[in-house]
What does this fold into?
Amino acid sequence: MKATVVDLKHKMKDVLEALEKREKITLLYHGKGKGFIIPADGQKIVKVVNHPFSKMAEKKAKSVEQQINELRGSRFNAL
It folds into this structure.
C-alpha cells in the first residue's frame, strides 16, 4: 500500500487495516517514497469468533470433563 502524509492524517483506519493484513506501507511525500511502515513482529490478531475454540461454548450440554475425554480420544478410554 502507498500512503501520503495526508492519508496518515485522514485515513488512518485504512492504514491500520493494511497493517493488520501484514502489508508494508510506503510513505510518500510530494510523490516520492520517503520511508516504510512495516507490521510489528508477533502474532496476527484473531477475532474471538474466528478462534478455533470459540465454538466449544455453544455445546453447553457436555461437561468440561466430557469435552476433554473427547479431545483425548481412545488412548485414555482403554484405562
